[in-house]
Protein: Phosphoheptose isomerase
Organism: Leptonema illini
Amino acid sequence: MNNHDLIVRHIQDSIAVKQRVIESCLPATEKAGQILSEALKQGGKVLICGNGGSAADAQHLATELVIRYRSGHERRSLPAMSLAADSSALTACANDYGFDRVFARQVEGHGAAGDVLWGITTSGNSENILQAFIEAKQRGMKTILFTGSTGGRIMKHASDRVDAAICIPSEDTARIQECHIMIGQILCAVIEKELFQLIS
């Protein structure tokens, strides 16, 4: 396969997965938008977590909320933070309590009833995301999960701790990640519409 064909195949695969997202993920996406908008309207904050590429997505989406989603849309900053961004907190917790607790410990410190925990895991098997969801529910928080087609261990063993699950209909990590950031940005647009009447 030459590079031209490789590029075309990747783009076509991405389009195909996004078409399946339209067919299967709209209700959960709408619910996630409602959860986030209502929490922010009521003075809650959004805590976002993920590992690896999903950690980068967590930082990206938190920034969209704190700064703004669309250029030219002036509005107040919204309270959001990535739990994957503080290297001191991550390494201290991993050293003292184990890597499985790196997000749960921060939820314990920063989370409260009325807040939202937004977890991103392509496999659905990340123990540190699962532990964060358990902690969030104990604190009366709402939870949103971004994951892949099966939802992994979290949806198998802890679906009762998930208020909105967006399970991308693919087994390909790259395609799942592409859809996660796309839907994450769509949710930012929903929030700006619901809170500030800004239409993207």
